[in-house]
Amino acid sequence: MNTSTKDESLMIDLEMPDGSFRQAKVGTTALAIAESIGSGLKRAAVAAKLNERLIDLRMPLKEGGKFQIVTLKDDAAGEVIRHSAEHIMADAVKRLWPDVQIDVGRTDHSEKFQYDFKINRTFTPEDLKRVEQLANDILKEKALFERSILSRDEAISFFKKQGEALKVKRIADIPEDQEITIYKHAQFTDLCRGPHVQTSDQIGVIKILESSASYWKGDEKEDVLQRIYGTAFRNKKELEDYLHRIEEARRRDHRKIGKELDLFSVSDEVGPGLILWHPKGALIRHLIEDHWKKEHLRAGYDLVYSPHLAKQSMWKTSGHTGFYKDNMFSPMDVEEQPYLIKPMNCPFHIQIYQSHLRSYRDLPIKLAELGTVYRYERSGVLHGLLRVRGFTQDDAHLFVTPDQLNHEIEEVLTFVTSMFATYGFTEYAIFLSTRPKDSVGSDEEWEVATNALKQALERKSLDYQIDPGEGVFYGPKIDIKIKDALGRFWQCATIQADFNLPERFHLEFVDQDGTKRRPIMIHRALLGSIERFFGCLVEHYVGAFPIWLSPVQSVVLPITTKHRAYAAQIFEKIRASGVRVEFDDRNEKLGFKIREAQLKKIPFMIVIGDEEVSTETLTVRHRSGEQWDSISFDTFLEKFWEEEKKTR
Questions:
Q1: What are phi and psi of 367, to 5 degrees?
Q2: Rounded CA gap, 6 and 450, in Å?
Q3: How far apart, in whole angstroms, are the C-alpha atoms of residue 557 and residue 612?
Q4: Is 342 helix (H, G, I), strand (E, B) or coil?
Q5: DSSP 3-state assignment of 46?
Q6: Average pLDDT estimate for 476-483
Q7: Do 415 and 534 form a contact (C-beta atoms < 8 A)?
Q8: Which residues contact 329 (CB under 8 A, 6 or more apart)?
Q9: Residue 625 half-sphere exposure, CB side, CA atoms within 13 Å?
């Protein structure tokens, strides 16, 4: 068992947060660097950052770059605290039920943590209280987190002796060229890449949230496991703030609101992850798509449509059967030819490009499609509209000359921010994802594509972070996450530069000198998928959509049956004006009907009583509480369209 590896003959340069540089030997740990700066910094440190990537304090450094010691005061400490608390929680479960087998935790620790356990019981609320109490007691033990490197054989032997059969299976999934590390605190040890805090008492407080059933690797054909979710923070105040946000998130849950407002549903008869759009939800979707099409035509895109399936040979040419097969549904035989349901639209757009010879004068060619695609997501990860098996991408592919690449990426960035602003989103988190291990194409092509994306971001003065190794197999990408009313970030827009697919499909255009050259492809989505974006909108607005998106914009409410005739006239005039309106003439009290209209999030409630009938006016209540008394029909329309325009 090795604790470090280093070559003391080599030195690396580390750029510190203040702009100064510090030299260190290869193999030096971040913890040693913190200690060299000061004992106080060493005590406060929980992790480090190297080139914007969180790393463990005990990990030997192999390369230089931008460097920072992360302390408990830094926002980034939260992720490390929750990752470490994940191990503490698993330790508590193991102490309470020694025969439990431990699977894996969570990769995203931005808000919470989780572990899956193989155990012959379903965790009860009382069990979770016991786990939480013991986990917080373990924090007081001030246990030291230790990092070690194991060979593959050592790791298999170690976990076999521990009776952790699931861990042995997980080791088989680790690539041969990947280092295997374990972390130990007290008597608990687990496979992990880290990073982790130095000692357990650097974690302030642990809260166990809930438990649920799960499947091994998310596959319903595999063993049923028990999953425990939890979170951890530096102190109780941060925990209380988080729990308040969780409660607010429950109130905004798009699945709950979608049912209350009759927007969409999922049917067991149809299958999980496949959405049924109800009339009101479908109307909102139509409004989004109609706006999308108009804006694309205005921006010089051509709208296209493509089939839902194609011969397997096309997906082999594109590389999807090699790099994306785990996310594709099984082939089907059509006249003894294997066909695949499409997971992406890009190969179809390539076929349209190839339908005839292109000149440099034709480029850029911008093909846009609201294309429905299908991806095999395991049932364990499906979640309402946010994680589905069939969804509609607001997709586009730009075929450009090398000289046009940078300009067109900038144009797409402008388009993205403009589109988001229409829906009320003005804050983003932007990530530039670089080459993954499993990829195709030359180093030179990847460098050109990555630099084009980077330069476009910088010319647009957009702040971004590097997300190492998270590009797609054919090229680097920009991911743009929008910030909602709760401060949560949602992945939506993506922009990808691609030299690979044009090469695979032998795409060409005739240049000015008559020679044939290869175009470059830009893959891009603005909203991401209609389903996911719609779910985001529901939660952002708590179902109270902007007026222009509200499926029902107004409702006419006669107070009694004697007011019905005049109310019916108003209803018909409003409907003829283009305002979406309902007529509620039920024999119910006005207060009841108003409450129902408010629950339906209808922006305008038009009340018709004695005074309105006698003066031929309207009284209008806005869902915000504002009221317009005894106004004329024309004044209502004028005010309505003014308010509607403000929400666009």
A1: -105, 125
A2: 31
A3: 12
A4: coil
A5: strand
A6: 93
A7: no
A8: 340, 341, 374, 376
A9: 0
171 sits in which H/E element: helix 165-173
Rounded CA-CA distance 646/648 in Å is 6
Helix (H, G, I), strand (E, B) or coil at 95: helix
Q: What is the pTM of this model?
A: 0.81
Q: In sequence order, which residues have a C-beta less than 8 Å from that of residue 353 and are 6 or more positions away?
A: 365, 367, 399, 507, 519
Domains annotated for the chain, with CATH where assigned, are 11-71 (3.10.20.30), 81-244 (3.30.980.10), 264-541 (3.30.930.10), 547-646 (3.40.50.800)
> Which residue carries 């926002």 as its tokens?
75
Rounded to whole angstroms, the Cα distance separating 540 from 385 reads 14
- Which amino acid is it at 613? V
Judging by DSSP bridges, how do beta strands 516-517 and 581-583 pair with one another? unpaired
**Cα 432 to Cα 411: distance, rounded to the nearest angstrom:** 17
User: Among 126, 47, 122, which residue's Cα sits nearest to residue 79?
Assistant: 47
Residue with tokens 């902007």: 546
β-pairing, 337-341 with 309-311?
antiparallel
Six token digits for residue 184: 């130990």
- Tokens coding 560: 């009694």
- Write out the two tokens for 467: 């997300």
Q: Encode pLDDT of 206-260 as tens digits.
A: 999 999 998 888 777 888 999 999 999 999 999 999 999 999 999 999 999 999 9
**Residues designated catalytic:** 346, 375, 393, 395, 397, 477, 523
Rounded Cα gap, residues 103 and 105, in angstroms: 7
Q: What average pLDDT score do residues 486-500 get?
A: 90
Token pair listed for 579 = 């305002």
User: Quick check: 112 and 69 in contact, CB under 8 A?
Assistant: no
- CA 85 to CA 71: how far, in whole Å? 16
Q: What is the distance between the alpha carbons of residues 471 and 478, in angstroms, rounded to a whole number?
A: 9
| CA gap 594, 606 in Å, rounded | 10
Q: What is the helix (H) or strand (E) element at residue 534, kind and residue range?
A: helix 530-541
| Contact of 80 with 54, CB cutoff 8 Å | yes
The Cα–Cα gap between 228 and 240 comes to 20
Share of the chain above pLDDT 70, in %: 99
* Token code pair at residue 254: 């798009």
Ranges assigned E (strand) in 346-389: 365-374
Whole-angstrom Cα distance, residue 364 to residue 502?
14
The CA distance from 548 to 537, in Å, is: 13
Peptide bond into 364 cis (omega under 30): yes
- Cis amide leading into 272 (omega within 30): no
pLDDT at 608 over 80: yes
Cis peptide before 195 (omega within 30 of 0): yes
